[in-house]
Amino acid sequence: MSFHETKIFREKVEGFLANAGELFSKENNDLAAFNIEQYFQLIIKNIIY
């Protein structure tokens, strides 16, 4: 991935983290945890590839 593609990808992935925060504040903890898991998986995949 180029630097530009990585930047765009990370901006989109940040949506999972933001969504997790909103879900957590609404006490929807299981979906918040799922979004956090997706966030970390995608960040790790981005680092590896």
Quick structural gist:
The protein has 49 residues and is mainly alpha-helical. The protein is 88% helix and 0% strand. Helix 1 packs antiparallel against helix 2.
Secondary structure blueprint with pairings:
Layout: H1 3-25, H2 29-48
Characteristics of this structure?
49 residues; mainly alpha; 2 helices; 0% strand
Cα shape: elongated
Oligomer: single chain
Radius of gyration: 12 Å
Q: How is the main sheet built?
A: none
Low-confidence stretches: none
SS summary, helix count: 2
Gap between N and C termini, in Å? 7 Å
DSSP, total strands: 0
- When the domains are counted, the total is 1
SS content category = mainly alpha
Question: Could you characterize what this model shows?
Answer:
The protein is 88% helix and 0% strand. By secondary structure, the protein is an all-alpha fold. The termini are close together. The radius of gyration is 12 Å and the shape is elongated. The protein has helices at residues 3-25, 29-48. The chain contains 2 helices and no strands. The protein has one domain (3-48).
